[in-house]
Each structure stands twice: as structure tokens, then as C-alpha cells.
Amino acid sequence: MTLPHPIVHHPFVIALGPLQLTGFGIAILMCFVTGQAVAQYELRRRGYDAEPVNDMVFAGVIAGLLGAKLYYVVVLRNWNAIFDRGGFVFWGGYILGSIAVLAVVLKKRFGIRRMMDVGGAASAAAYAVGRTGCWAVGDDYGRPWRGFLAVAFPHGAPPSTAGVMAREFGIPLPPGAGPTTVLSVYPTQLYEVAMGLVMFGIVWRLRDHKHAEGWLFGVYAVLAGIERFIVEFYRAKDDRLVYGLTYAQLISIGFVVFGVVWMSVFWRVRERWPGIYGSRASVPAPEASTA
Q1: DSSP strand E in 115-174: where?
Q2: Residue 120: in which H helix or E strand, if any?
Q3: Where are the alpha helices (DSSP H) in 10-89?
Q4: pLDDT, tens digit, for every residue of 205-215?
Q5: Would you tell me the crossing angle of helices 90-108 and 247-265 to the nearest 10 degrees?
Q6: 248 and 218 Cβ atoms separated by less than 8 Å
Q7: Is the N end or the C end of the chain the one with fewer CB atoms within 10 Å?
Q8: Phi-psi region of 109 (alpha: psi -120 to 50; beta: other; left: phi over 0)
């Protein structure tokens, strides 16, 4: 049984013989490509070597996918999903991916504050692109809603049926609905795509800031934390803890606090903390090839 609704979602899949390319997989690939392109463009614009971004992205891809899966399996205790193609959480991927990128930056002395400064815009752009994958596969949707822009996910991951809502998210069955009734929900994936683009626009607009190098990442951290904190109120989730807040919201609060502190520390240009165009002399020269 399906409740009548004008907007019905269908997963995006490209079939190439026996090979199937899902919209989620394509979006994840493109989010890293987008982030890399933005970071390299901004480094070149500032007069720096953009080659280090390749090593950072490689480390971020491996650690990010691992962290996203570990968060879903360990923190949310979805042990059966360890080998599933789905089951990835943004904050887990972002945290572990950031640690891996930080390790590469420190090891090769790329300039941590410089990379964080350009990384804010790159992260915002990558986030907006990556969230299109959640929409394409029908994952990470919101709570039941009958509004004008509500969307039904009969083939989502998982489907937005009343039974799934009750079993997976603890949402009671609506009156008159059976377990197989497909419910319309908040299209939170599209909310996050839109808010990700807004974040990117703000950070990109501020990229010529007059503060110390690294300040811009604090702006991104505040915006990203606020964005996720708001969207979580509309998400279908089963991990609500203190005062109904989710794990993601608690992490978001920490991210906002970090961003505010980071911005205050690097608010002014100082001798040891130069501006965004004031430390080119410290850029290491590319290593000579031994081939």
C-alpha cells in the first residue's frame, strides 16, 4: 500500500552490462574530485604549489571511507552492515579523514594553517556534491511529513515505509498505516545539498580575508556545525541522546565551539602568524624526481 503523493523518488543507477554504477558511488567520487580541484585552484591563486593536495586527497579518501564505515558500525552498533555497500556516516569519515590529511601535512611540512585555510572551501564544496549521492540512492532522508515538498522513497536505502520507520527509527505507525505503507518524508538530503552550497558560497566569498592564515577554516567549522545541527532535527534517526540530541548534533556543537575558538586565535595577523599572502617563502620546493 502506498500513500498518494506527487513526488516519488527512484534510485539513480547506471547499468554497464553486469556492472552497476550507483549515484552514491559516483557522487562520492565526484566529491573528492571537487574538493581536490577547489583546493588546488585556491593554492595556485595564492601563489603556492598545488601538488601536495594529491597526497592529501589520497590519504583522505582511504581514511575517510574507513572512518565513515567505522562510525556506522561501531558507534551506531550496526554490526551487520560492516560488509554492506551502504552504511557510511559523514562525521566519522570527516574526522578520521582529517586526521589522515593532518598527518600527511605535518609529515611533509606543507603548512598546516595554509592547507586548513584552503581546505574550508574545498570541504564545503565536496560536502554539497557528496550529499547528492544520498539523494541518488534514497538514504539519509527525514521524518514523515505530508508537506508540499515531501518525498516518498519506495525503493530507498531503506524504503521509507511505516514498518521501517517504526523498526529502525522508533517512529510510531501513523493511524491507518500498515508496515508496508510508504510514507512521504522530509527530503533532508536536498536540504543538505542546498546548505552545503550556501556554506561554500560564504567561505569562497571570504577567501581573500585579512586575518591570519588558517582563520577561514574556523568559518567553515562554524557553518558546518550549524548546518548539521539544524538538519538533524528533521532527520529520521534512532540515536537521540541528551535532550533528544543525536550523536551528530553533539559533534556539531563541538565543531562550532572549535571554529569560534580557532577564528578568535587567528583573528589578527602577527609575525609568527602571517596573512594568506605572507608566508610564500616557507613553501617547500617540489622534490626532484629520482626516476
Answers
A1: 151-152
A2: helix 112-137
A3: 23-45, 52-70
A4: 999 988 888 89
A5: 30
A6: no
A7: C
A8: left
